[in-house]
Amino acid sequence: MATLILTDDETMLQDAARGFLDGAAPVGNLRANREAGRAYDPDLWGEMVRMGWAGVLVSEEQGGSDMGFAAANILSEEMGRSLVASPFLSTAVIAATALRRAGRTAALSAIAAGEATYALAIDEGPKFAPDATSMEAATSGNGFRLTGAKTFVGDGASASRILVLARAQAGLTLFDIEAGRTGVSRDKLDLVDSRDHAAITFDGVEATGEDVVGDVGGGLAALAPALRAGQAALAAELTGLSAGAFEMTAGYLKERKQFGRHIGSFQALQHRAAHLWSEIEVTASTIINAGRVLDATPDEADLAVSLAKARATETANLAVREGVQMHGGIGMTDEFDMGFYMKRARVAAEWLGDYGYHAAVVAKARGMAA
Amino acid sequence: MPDMGQDRHADFRAEIAAWIDENAPASLRNRSFSEDDICWGGKRWVFRSEDQKTWLEACAAKGLTAPTWPEAYGGAGFDRAQDKAFREELDRLQVKKPLDSFGLWMLGPALLAFGTEEQKRHFLPQITRGEIRWCQGYSEPGAGSDLASVQTWAEDKGDHWIVNGSKIWTSYADQADWIFALIRTDRDAPKHKGISFMLIDMESEGVSTKPIRLISGKSPFCETFFDNVRVPKSYGEGLPAIVGEENRGWDVAKHLLTHEREMIGGGGSGLTGGRSVASVLADEGTTDPVILSRAMKLGVDELAMNLTLERYKDMAKQGGVGNASAMLKYYGTELNKARFELLMSAGGSDALAWDGEHGTLAPEWLRTKANSIEGGTSEVMLDILAKRVLELPGQ
């Protein structure tokens, strides 16, 4: 087993990513996107494509950089640090992993080249529950007709293609269809994190066998590796987010004066800051572990990934709550960035499975009947 | 990944496993663990069995009671990978450790870092052979979290010191042969600058001990009194009674405390034992959703902490952890207390007996309350993190 610290190559990737994002995508970009009414900055994504981030999990034959899951987590963590909005997670991590398993080389080339962006349409209710998918993929001639409604589709309003899970006669099946296909209608959801989310309805959308990713009836199997990769990268994003929020907060404790002294000299705040730092440290171990396990044994990574997502969700929640409280009044203002951290942490907590969902996976793996 | 060392490592592991298999007595090979199984050694030690003695002697002869210490001082000179392989093979073959002692955990590392060559050659092999049992004299009734305010004083009498005062929480002092203690040797210097790290024979006239009964019903700790105790400045050529420089004992103590924190945080002392949460829940048929949800959260946090211990070991190998080790101590001990609170809840009234169906869960639960006090309280750990790691402003 590789060690739980970054290799020299990984440190270089992290430094390069941080250097690039500090310059090109500070938190202010999210504010600018919000004011401009767009989910992300396409020029920024173009830069990421050129640096090989879109193809981080695509093989070199398809034009990818093929750096692996630990590397994808590093990029995601750095984006989380300054709340960078981009199609990275849905496209470069989730879709690329599913399509690669299914051997869909043309789609992979399009991802690596930045010609296609993807969204994963899976949720139908307020909680993540892929097994309970009820959207129908009725048999129609040699193909299918997709009918149903999906919600909380990350990157769903802007993506050029959609991976959608629906129930065929043979069982749950994963389809890859272009977003503009007849019968697909997308409604932008205005969620608290000011990012791209959509509700998508499918009204008798025609699909062929060509559109099926993996096997008919094998949708969950086709999706599982992609979900694990996405959950790990989202956990990494949340950990970067926690570190970013903590950095701002620790900086404020050192600078803000009340009662004639720095508020960071008060033991009540010192102990809470030290506790938060400890939580972030402990969670960081689960993130690097998830990357290592995904790279070594991607099909036996449920425990490592769920551990990371559960911990990261809870730690980010603490980081943003403490962030707002320790900033006092200014933490409540829209003008100040801490609120963005809190809102993104809340959305990311729910996406791809909440704390309870992932803690139950961990409990089951540990032999506890949950 | 090409690794030329892989075969060598596999050979080493196979070799050490074969040696253990050949030499470890059958009676010391089983999964059960109780405090009575520990071999502490020392002049007053009564071996629990002939096998315990044989196993200690076999390991000591090969340096395996202190595998990472240099061979010249009674160790085996193992590197970290070899040490890990040895410990894993002991565990796999279900063999008990040959020796545990404060000499191995605490004094040895202090001597290796600060001792004279003669001190190392004299004291370390006595430790590895289990001949001398040491205890630690740090805290005093008036110096707990504020350890540097120790008052036990050594008056300079030329070729010897006269020591007066008392120590508290000295583990197993009533069974120890020698004590390593923080003693004030300069009462005029600032409090951190007038302390020496002194080695004292417990058989000296004027040393006495009194066990302290804990809430757990056990008495692992003592009070130790020094009443005009004469301590020679030197025990022989190159063997001063003080480790490191006179009045610089705080440096030695700090070094050891960092070491101790890593150990306590890692379950090295008093944090193991007890049954798994899952097995207690299953045995009791627990259906209480509150207990189950606490168990789920604890499971997540325990796994994350185990990974963190591994990660910090990797970091230590790469150049050090420093004051961040306070995090391991803080987090590990608080987690252990939470675990035993949950075990008690899950066990219900079955868990309340001193010695019942669940073994000794109740006294173990009570014992865990000391985890976040001994070796520096949780609050002191948070102070260290806030000031030294986060560099938050002082008052």
Order the strands across the largest sheet of chain B as they lie in space.
1-4-5-8
Oligomer: heterodimer
Average pLDDT of chain B works out at: 89
Q: Fraction of residues of chain A in helices?
A: 40-55%
Q: Do you know the CATH topology of the largest domain in chain A?
A: Butyryl-CoA Dehydrogenase, subunit A, domain 3
According to CATH, the homologous superfamily of the largest domain in chain A is Butyryl-CoA Dehydrogenase, subunit A, domain 3
Pairing-aware structural class of the strands and helices of chain B? Answer: alpha+beta
CATH topology of the largest domain in chain B: Butyryl-CoA Dehydrogenase, subunit A, domain 3
Structural summary, described in words:
Chain A has 370 residues and is an alpha+beta fold. Chain A folds into 3 domains: 109 residues, Butyryl-Coa Dehydrogenase, subunit A, domain 1; 98 residues, Butyryl-CoA Dehydrogenase, subunit A, domain 2 (Beta Barrel); 146 residues, Butyryl-CoA Dehydrogenase, subunit A, domain 3. In chain A, 51% of the residues lie in helices and 16% in strands. Chain A has a 4-stranded mixed sheet. Chain A has a 4-stranded antiparallel sheet with strand order 2-3-7-6, with no helix packed on it. In chain A, helix 5 runs antiparallel to helix 7. The radius of gyration of chain A is 21 Å and the shape is globular. Chain B is built from 11 helices and 8 strands. Helix content of chain B is 42%, strand content 14%. About 2% of the residues of chain B have low confidence. In chain B, helix 4 crosses helix 6. In chain B, the strands form 2 sheets. In chain B, strands 1-4-5-8 form a 4-stranded mixed sheet. A 4-stranded antiparallel sheet of chain B has the order 2-3-7-6, with no helix packed on it. Chain B is globular and about 70 Å long. Chain B has 395 residues and is of the alpha+beta class. Chain B has 3 domains: 78 residues, no CATH class; 115 residues, Butyryl-CoA Dehydrogenase, subunit A, domain 2; 124 residues, Butyryl-CoA Dehydrogenase, subunit A, domain 3, CATH 1.20.140.10. At the A-B interface, helix 7, strand 10, helix 8, helix 9 and helix 11 of A face helix 7, helix 8, helix 9 and helix 11 of B.
